[in-house]
Amino acid sequence: MRLSLARREALWAFAFLLVPLAFFLFIRIWPAFQALWLSLYEWNADPAKRHFVGLEHYQQMLGDKLLRRALVNTLLYTLIGVPAQLVLGLIVALLLNSVERFRDLFRAIYFAPYITPAVAVAWTFSWMLSANFGIVNEILRLLGLPAQPFLQSPQQALLTVTAVIVWQNLGFQVVLFLAGLQNIPREYYEAARIDGADGWALFRHITLPLLNPVIVFSAVIGTIGFLQLFTQVVNLNFTDQGGPLDSTLTLALYIYQQAFSRFELGYAAAITVLLFGIILLITLVQLRLLSRRVEY
Amino acid sequence: MRISRLSILLAYVVLVLGSLVMIFPFLWMLLTSLKPFQEVFDLKLFPQSATLNNYRQVLLETQFPRWFFNSLVVAVITTLSVLFFDSLVGYTLAKLRFPGKGVIFVLILSTLMVPTEMLIIPWYVMSAENGWVNTYWGLLFPGLMSAFGVFLLRQFFQTLPGDLLDAGRMDGLSEFGVFWRVAFPLVRPALAALGIFTFLGNWNAFLWPLVIVQTAEMRTLPVGVALFSGEAGTAWNLIMAASSLAVLPVLLVFLFFQRQIIEGVVLTGVKG
């Protein structure tokens, strides 16, 4: 008997999905639940020495001062970094949109850092920002300004790291915003000008609302990136990762240290559950707040 | 009219100043990498006696070529795997009818919410139990498919007209043949974008390779550069040579595929 056409199509579909479904189930979904399960155990490589501790790790998190520091730092990175890169990206995109010549060249220059390995970027900046022999302080001296400790100062380190990341991410925002700007029909501006709108009004009532979907997209992507900050923090201050005085410590770095330096895998897993919750919550709130419908 | 001329001039001035800020770190990295150690702390812009010794030292006295090779292996295999499987899944979800389609799509999409940090500990435990630690398989198994790629490609396959696929079936192609010969080549722009970003993402990846690699010869380029630099102390000439060697291939690729890469960002950004 021949299979009906619909049955045949469904069989092919399942054949196509077999390997990928196995991958997503065993490598992406199952481990997420395993992290939850791990967080309830005091982990040991020897199965006989593992024991169930229930919610003890979550209780431990409440009293962990270093975790609180990592949490506050991570939120600071995000709250400073995301708006900074959105605003700077928008400014550069607006400038690029207003000029005709060399636009592609400028765009390429601003974009290049985005694709370069974060490790190399971090080491280069670590050298440039070195307190005693850094070229940045040398430039400040030439300008008659006082030298700064940058990454060596608990007060400046977090801001310095943020600045490096914004430097690297800027081009991504620029490219997205520029594409968004070029999608806005010129007639809108012309019509509004006839109605007597000035530059600021044009920006406020045409550019910004029409750019909203792109802004939401890059705000969400940027936030998720900053909440998972790891590579730059590790490499910018390699001999004192997260320092000085834990001032640059992030959640991801703290998780790494707990899991792979102290082998507290259960406790580290509990913190990843917290990170998951934070990312989920912030993403949902952002989508809610920022994605208001645009009326044409 | 004069005011608008002035504002355009001003725009150029700001853009040029900004470009200097973007370019200077690359320049300083390269210039430092060409200086002998004695000159490094003079902070002169150009080396007095430029040398390639730092590069020679990094390439010959570390396992840098091996790290380069490891990164290449991981990035190439994961990219090919992502392109093939993600488009197969994207195509199936967009174009074939079968029960449970909605559930499967949501299942795959839901994995986008889970941060990598949460998976790394279970992946590590899994790898330790199966002997995957410090192997190529251990390095690349987490990246073999991407939920984002499935989502992106599904959008593109949805725009293909069904008649085209039916024509392929009429010509006697199997269902796989229809996918591989007819549909797959038609989403080339999306594949190019996804391919470039999967490659770069794996080439630049740091956290998972740092966890799973234990010996110097299995390091990927970013892990190799980081740990080498950590040991090099104040030999910034060597550190900058290692960084340059990590950055230059990426910049070269960017120089050649600049348009495709930038269009890729727009494509994935707008569709994603």
Structural descriptors:
heterodimer, A: 296 residues, mainly alpha, two-stranded antiparallel ribbon, globular, B: 272 residues, 78% helix, 0% strand
Note the topology.
The complex is a heterodimer of chains A (296) and B (272).
Chain A: H1 5-38, E1 41-42, E2 51-52, H2 56-62, H3 65-98, H4 103-115, H5 118-128, H6 135-142, H7 157-182, H8 186-194, H9 199-227, H10 231-236, H11 251-261, H12 265-290
Antiparallel strand pairs in A: 1-2
Helix pairs in contact in A: 2-12, 3-7, 3-9, 4-7, 7-9, 9-12, 11-12
Chain B: H1 2-33, H2 37-40, H3 53-61, H4 64-95, H5 101-110, H6 116-130, H7 136-140, H8 147-158, H9 162-170, H10 175-186, H11 188-204, H12 207-212, H13 221-232, H14 236-271
Describe this structure in words.
The complex is a heterodimer of chains A (296) and B (272). Chain A is built from 12 helices and 2 strands. Chain A has helices at 5-38, 56-62, 65-98, 103-115, 118-128, 135-142, 157-182, 186-194, 199-227, 231-236, 251-261, 265-290; strands spanning 41-42, 51-52. Chain A is globular, with a radius of gyration of 24 Å. Chain A is mostly helical and 296 residues long. A two-stranded antiparallel ribbon of chain A has the order 1-2. Chain B has 272 residues and is mostly helical. In chain B, 78% of the residues lie in helices and 0% in strands. Chain B is built from 14 helices and no strands. Chain B has helices at 2-33, 37-40, 53-61, 64-95, 101-110, 116-130, 136-140, 147-158, 162-170, 175-186, 188-204, 207-212, 221-232, 236-271. In chain B, helix 4 (64-95) crosses helix 8 (147-158) and helix 9 crosses helix 10. The longest helix of chain B is centred in the C-terminal third of the chain and has 36 residues, at 236-271. At the A-B interface, helix 1, helix 3, helix 4, helix 5 and helix 7 of A face helix 1, helix 4, helix 5, helix 6 and helix 10 of B.
